[in-house]
Design brief:
The chain is mainly β. The chain has one helix and five strands, in the order βαββββ. Strand 2 and strand 3 form a beta hairpin.
Length: 82
């Protein structure tokens, strides 16, 4: 059985920025992973972590060897004051 890959990254998205997802003008999140790769994924994959302030934290995404989304989890919080 092939091993899944795990990608770690930080996000800092204000509630106002994420509002574009609800308005239909944004569908994807783009960010740089810890290993330097540019990653892009559907915004609905991270929506569960949306708070009144937005989405801030350090995350780990699990993908199959074919780059299919499996899961995402929040590893810790980041300050919204950054």
């Amino acid at each position: 059985m092939a091993k899944h890959q795990f990608i770690r990254f930080q996000l800092g998205i204000s509630a106002e920025q994420f509002l574009r997802v609800y308005q239909g003008s944004a569908k994807n999140i783009s960010t740089r992973a810890d290993d330097g790769r540019l990653i892009k994924f559907p915004a609905h994959n991270i929506k569960q972590f949306l708070s009144h302030d937005g989405i801030y934290g350090y995350f780990e995404m699990e993908l199959t060897t074919e780059n299919k989304f499996v899961a995402i989890k929040k590893l810790n919080n980041l300050s919204t004051q950054a």
